[in-house]
Amino acid sequence: MSYDHRQGNSPDSASLQEKRDDTKLEDGVVIGPVLTAGTEFNREEGPLTQPDDRETRRIISKMDWRVLPICSVLYLFSFLDRTAIGNAKVAGMYDDLKLNDGQYATALSIFFVLYCFAEIPSNLVLKKLGAKIWLPIIVVFWGLVMLFTGLVKNFEGLVAMRLLLGLFEAGLFPGISYYLTILYPRAFIQLRIGIFFSAATIAGAFGGLLAYGLSHVKTADYKGWCFIFIIEGILTVVVGVVSYFLLFSGIESATFLTAEEKQYMTDRVKYDGNEIAMNDEFAWKFVWAGLRDWKTIFILITYISCLTPLYSIALTLPSILKTSLKYNAVDAQLYSVPVYVVAAVTVIAFAWASDRLQCRTAFICLGSAISAIGWGISYSMTKSHPKIGYGAQFISAAGSYAAFPGIVAALTQNVGGKTKRSVCIAIIVGVGGLSGIVSSNIFMKRTAPYYHTAHYINIGMNLLCFTSALCFAGLLKMANARKQRRIDSGEAARMSAQEIADLGDESPYFFYRY
Prior knowledge:
Layout: E1 18-20, E2 33-35, H1 53-96, H2 101-109, H3 111-117, H4 119-129, H5 131-149, H6 155-169, H7 172-181, H8 189-214, H9 224-246, H10 259-270, H11 284-292, H12 294-323, H13 329-357, H14 361-381, H15 386-412, H16 418-432, H17 435-441, H18 452-488, H19 497-503
Antiparallel strand pairs: 1-2
Helix pairs in contact: 1-8, 1-9, 1-12, 2-6, 2-17, 3-6, 3-16, 4-5, 4-16, 5-6, 5-7, 5-9, 7-16, 8-13, 8-15, 11-16, 12-13, 12-15, 12-16, 12-17, 12-18, 13-15, 14-15, 14-18
Protein name: MFS general substrate transporter
């Protein structure tokens, strides 16, 4: 349900007499309108270039090859490391550390405590230091934590490492999500989020294969599950160091772009949906605006209700395959791989279609419906028809993973001003991440082997996701109607450029997309 608002009503366009200079820059980018007599606006207050679809796609393609691979690899290791505990459990960690169900659930859940509270500070530091500095720092630190997790000898050590892992991993997903919003226009954002998020599904496949191989490694002091943590930790540290040399902090520091291309893309992002640039400076009033924004608070419902079934798959799929479907420990790791491969393909397909159609809500609803169907089939068929039960894991995983990027895109494309956007992203990822605590505690041993309670909860969460996404779209549509009334009444025309810039996404000229 995209919104095609009326064009030409902003004070910088219809109300101003313009004289256009069609001179071309060296790479063929058209210089934008030069405002002449009859206006108090400076040239600096509007775009210096005019949009050209072919040119936009050419430069974005150039950026994709530099941005998406490293972001995807970083998130692959983020998700690989946080979910490695599920593979380690099946590989023998549970018995070697003499854990009980309550302790294992605590080890899973404790990750999300500092993960939740560190999101907002991390994104504010990211805005200050830039992605090139901040992201490699946190990646190297959580890689070291992973390495030391392989050396723990008891429950207390495991909990301490999981707590620190949550602290250092907290900044990556909201950080990359914010990072993409300062590089790409809104119309192109979900496919890019989908591509880097698909790394989470690939992490499931890669983690299963890696665990399958490492579970066979044993020494006098350490067993296979230890090496799952140790090897993944070493690889993460290496990737973190390499990322410093590949990342850049913004369009202005992208050395692979020409000066003209930088100006062109800066205009596309800065004036995306508005002809007066939003105020991107840091101010505490913008932090507060992010904390109280109704869109953030509302979409948290959609985010949590989607992420709970997703984390149920990410954290417990090997256990489901072993306990419910009776695979042995090694085969449980191996058979999880195809599930994640299918989910990764579905994520990309949904994201591409969503950007193509400029529609977020329909794909969120479709994904949550598919996931609910998968959990329903798993609930009803696993006991009597294990092969069908295994097939249900493909359906539930594909639905939840495919719906998720649309939720992130629905928020990022509707929140304006860099400071406010960074806070809003951190809130939904941080607070929404607490859904991992729910997922960690619903697969109780007393409900094994078929975990009916967990199935009920995940089906209900998917239905809640479906409903809340529709409601969110309805509220955005109503907000757009109010903005149009402010334009039609002349109220918006009486606002100064500074007032409009400070309003950010609440500007009457910035229309929400859904």
